[in-house]
Each structure stands twice: as structure tokens, then as C-alpha cells.
Design a protein that fits this description.
Helix content of chain A: 40-55%
Strand content of chain A: 5-15%
Strand order of the largest sheet of chain A: 3-2-1-4-5-6
CATH class of the largest domain in chain A: Alpha Beta
CATH architecture of the largest domain in chain A: 3-Layer(aba) Sandwich
Number of domains of chain A: 2
Radius of gyration of chain A: 20 Å
CATH superfamily of the largest domain in chain A: Nicotinate-nucleotide-dimethylbenzimidazole phosphoribosyltransferase (CobT), large domain
Oligomer: homodimer
Distance between the termini of chain A: 53 Å
Amino acid sequence: MTDQATPEATLEAALAAIRPADPAALDAARERQGRLTKPAGALGVLEEVSIRLAGLAGTCPSPDPAPAAVAVFAADHGVHAQGVSPWPQEVTAQMVANFLAGGAAVNVLARQAGAAVVVVDAGVATSLEGLVPEGAVVADATAIVPEQPRLIERAVRRGSDDISVRPAMTREQAIQGLAHGIVIAGELAGAGYRCLVAGDMGIANTTASAALIAAFTGADPADVTGRGTGIDDEAHRHKVGVVRVVLARRDAENAAAPQDPIDILASVGGLEHAQIAGFILGAAAHRVPIVLDGVIAGASALVAFALAPAAVDACLAGHRSAEPGHAVALQQLGLTPLVDLELRLGEGSGAVLALPLVRSAVAVLREMATFDGAGVTEKSS
Amino acid sequence: MTDQATPEATLEAALAAIRPADPAALDAARERQGRLTKPAGALGVLEEVSIRLAGLAGTCPSPDPAPAAVAVFAADHGVHAQGVSPWPQEVTAQMVANFLAGGAAVNVLARQAGAAVVVVDAGVATSLEGLVPEGAVVADATAIVPEQPRLIERAVRRGSDDISVRPAMTREQAIQGLAHGIVIAGELAGAGYRCLVAGDMGIANTTASAALIAAFTGADPADVTGRGTGIDDEAHRHKVGVVRVVLARRDAENAAAPQDPIDILASVGGLEHAQIAGFILGAAAHRVPIVLDGVIAGASALVAFALAPAAVDACLAGHRSAEPGHAVALQQLGLTPLVDLELRLGEGSGAVLALPLVRSAVAVLREMATFDGAGVTEKSS
């Protein structure tokens, strides 16, 4: 899984390395939760998180999931031409600059959580010339530092094609994107990060996410297409219609030649979806927990899940997005969101907010006293 | 508001000091949220928290709500004799020892959040002799340190009376409890704590909480009585029946002589409810935000709210408890919970988990770039 390997070989190696959660560690964590000085189950979802991470690590309790690193995958979408977003496409590049200057929401939240931020140019359409601070570009993710966001350049192409007209990218480009994500996760794991967050930036990316979720779950476009970063009823109807056109085109392709998950990704996805799906696979291959953000990460996780079902054992759902497709994706993945604050921003913001909850869940299992150890009487049965 | 004042004078001074949120600061915070580099409203509940805290502080943005201090008010309940809990009453004292040894859930979570813990003996029934580590008892809350939990002794009496038979305490004892809570909040504010958390410990305290919530909201006992720390259907039916007996007794008292909020507290509440209600009033009087935990803090907040409606402007709901009475209390208070993880532990655990979210909300308003400052184009209308 180095940059020298072919993209196909990188993908194959990651898929071969992914194993399900360790049953013995899961059992040990469940048993230990039952001995801690609290009523059984009283810490609710936190208990499940601690059990899940023990299973992933293969040890009970699992190590502290820190430090964390947030990779914000930025890319543009040809479907923007269909008027699915009120924001101009240049905003993707402008927000990359904002991330690198430390002024975006994800920067503020990552500082609070003590997480490092790396921005990945996964295929921004407009020029970043003049927008990137000097010294911000680094060769790979091993060079990032908590104090200063950095940019790594992994654009497979400059924006996807318009998925309402033709596939977003070629199959080869999709595999290249997956491989980049896998390698970035491996670099961060190698650099000592013990928890990863997949964030996103890309004007119109909720449209491609809706198409991916509909394609992978069979849901109706009307049930998975949301208002993104703010559109009215009429614009929403138009957006649903565009997603219907995308799905009809993909159905015709599938009828002509049945599609595997990578074909679906290439057909209706986006460049950041490819890299985030790879990032999830890479995290799972390295048994490092990955906290998913909203609907873009959820759509990408469906790709990863289709390629390697056990990859879901490395995933935690950071938050419940206001986007309707997110709930559909989480249901398919069987994940329970940790934060439910009506966020609809992306960037990784909801997942970064969940990081202290994830650390706290593990700390409970690591540090709480047991009934016998603390001399506390258990309840009568 | 010193310990030298009479309890009545301490209460009067706190009530006189409580003012509603500052409208100018609220407006300034709303306006600033609209200029930050994100779609309007995209940070959901976090935006509301930042606005609320600006209103409380009277400045926009509000100061960082840190460091935080958690006061865990421990007390016993005479209604335990009615068999409403499967846990023996000694567990309250044993858990005080566990708090002081740092082994309880709230200790682990407070360490993660960087919050100090002070345990308040508000009326534990069984002896703490031999359970309290040497040096753990301090004279007042100004002497606490983040690294080591401390105990302050503020027991008004050793456990409340059985509220299914007679009032929990006298009116004078209720006022004394309120005054203790007010003074403790003032001590913590004076010691530089910028965010307070009200936690609780007391076997059977969900029964008194259900009675308080029913008395203050008019809800039926069946709708506000939960399973506490774990009882089956039959035990739950019994518990609802006990709360009905409590309410019938209090209705008879009220018919004989109409009760004010302090009378209701004295009649159906608990010793920790009195001190937590006072703690909320004290926080509001000092304009320090207070994060409420679950159903015990929610019931106590109804008392504070009845005495000073503007006190709610200092309150944030830390989490949504699995106890049904909690939702009823939050609705009456108009508060939206920050964390929803199916917790049903108490101790302040849910509120402490919310502390990073509260700090993050304020950090967003303090640190995020604005559209004009970052050169990001706004969406077309």
C-alpha cells in the first residue's frame, strides 16, 4: 500500500487486509461494562462505542482513540451546471483557502478537539492559484501537524463530469481515487493518528451523494435528496428531478452491462466520494477507527461497505445530518449517530464534534471502577 | 450571599440578582452567526447555544465557558422504604466514596472534559464514616482542584422523610437547601469557574423527581415516572402507584393551604433537589452558564424556574435522559438537549459529556472567519 503500487494493487491489498471485529475482544468489553460501578446499560450508546472499538482493536479496553486527524476531501461536480446549488462553484476553492487559513468551522472544531486537519484536493475544478498560503502544500499526509492545516494534491481530474448526462469519471479514475484515499489513511495511521475523520467540501456534492445512496439502497430519489446548504421548495423539486435523471441514466447503463460497486461510484458519484470510500477502507485495513460525518461520508461508506462489508466495523457515525439520505445510508450500514444537533454543514464538522464522545466512551471502559473494586453493593435482582 | 447571611436573605438576594438575557448581545450574536463562512443555520443547535450564552454574558461573543466545575449533590430519600428501587440505600454513601476515589463515571468523564468535581453531602442517610479518604473534606467549594474530587458537608438533615406519608422536609429546611446551593454556585463562580454542571446521586431520587415534575407541570404520574436505574414492569407499576400516593397527599395539603414553589419542593422533593435548584439560581445570579444533567436536575430546574423564570436563560440541557419525566420538564423549560445517547445514569454524566459541545459552540462564534474576511462568495438568493 505505498504510492509506488498500482491503484489496483493498493485497492486489492486493502480489501485483503480488512477483517471483521474480534469476537473475544467484543465479549471481554461487554463483560467488563457489566462490572463497572453503574447500572447495566446506563451509559447507553457510549457502552456500544467502547465495545465496538475493543472489537476493532482486538483488545479490551481499546487504546485511547487519540490523537485524531481530519482529512477534508475537496472536489467539484459537473452536475453543478444543472443548477442544483445556489452557491457558485468557485466556493469550493475559496473554502479550501479558508480551511488552510484556519477560519472554517472544521478548523475551529478540530482545534477544540485537538485534531489535526489535512485538506485533500481530490479534484477541485477552479484554480487554487493565489489561494493557497505559502508552505501549505505538503507531499503527503505524514507531514501534517496539529497546529497548521496542510494541503495534499491528489486530484484525479479537475472536477467530475455532469452525472445527469454521463458518468462522473472513468472506472480507472474511480480506482485511482479509492487508492489515494487508502494511501492517505495509511499515512495517517503510520504517523500515529489513532482516530480518523472523513470530511468533505464540494459545491453540489449532496446531489451526487443522493444519487449514490439511491443507487446503493434502491431508495426513491425524493426520499434521499435534501436541501443541501439551503434551497427552497421549488429548487428542491428541481434537484430531485435531476437525481431522477441521473438514476435513469445509470439504470440504462446497468441494463446494458451490470455494474459492480466501482462502476456505480464512477457513474453517479464524485471524486471526493471515491477518496473518502478509499479512506474508510484504509482505516479499516489498519484497524484505526474512523468517524463519519454526514451524507457525503455516508454515501461513500456505502461504496466501501459494498466492496468490503467488514469495513463497517471500523466506522462510527459522528452525527445525524439534516439530509434525508443520511438516515437511509446509516440504516443500511447499521450505524447509530452520536451527535444530533441539526447540523448540515459538512467539512467533517459533525464527526469532529463527536470525537470527545468517542474518547469518553473508551475512557469509561479503561478507567471506571468495578463494583468489587470500589466496594459498591450491586442491586438486588 | 455569604454563609453568614440567613438562608432567607441568601435566597432573596439571588432572586433579586437574576435578570433575563441581554437583548443587544442576543442580536449581535445572531447577526454575527449570519456572517460566518457557512450557510445560514448550518451549525444548527450549536448556533443557538452560542447566541444563548452571549445573551447570558451580555457580550458577543461570550467568553470561553471554561474551566467547568461539576457539583454532585448526594442525598437519600425516605420514600426508598416503599420499595421503589432495587438498590440498597447504602449505595448512596458508597458512591460518594467512589466519587471521592475518582472511580465513578462522572469522574472519568470530568477528567476527559477538564472539569473539576466537588461532591456535596446534601443529606446522605447512612454514615460516611470510614468511606471518605483523608483530606477529601474541604470547608467550601473555593478549595476544590481539578485533579482531585473533594467533599463539602452541607447536609440539612440525614435523608428526607417518606414523601408517600408526609412532606420530605420542612419549609425551613427547603430554604436552607436552596441557600446552600446558591452559596456553592457563588463560590465556584468566585473561584473562576466559567461553566457549572449540576449532578446528583441518591437512591430513589427518580421517584421524588417524578413527583416534583407532576406537581409543577400537572402531568400524570404514569407519564413522568420512569425505570430509574433498572426495574421491571411490575416494579414500575408499583413505583407509579407510589408517585400517585405522593401526589394525592400533596393535593390534600394544597387544598388545605395553597402551596408556593418552596412548599411544593418541601412536600414532594428531595434534599438534593433543593440544593440543585439553589445552585441553578446561584449560577443565574452570577450569569455563569449551568449545564443540567437528567431528570433530577430537570425537576430541580422547575423549582428554580417557578421562583425566578429568568433563571432558565442561564441553563443549557446537557442531554436527553431516557427517563420520561425529563422530556416533560425540558418542554416546560423550553430547553433543547445537546446529547442524546440513551444515558440513564445521573451523577452529571450527560451534562459533562455536553461540555465540549458547549465550548465548541462558543469557539465557532469567537474564531470562525466571516465571508468578507475570508474572501468567500455568498450564495445567490
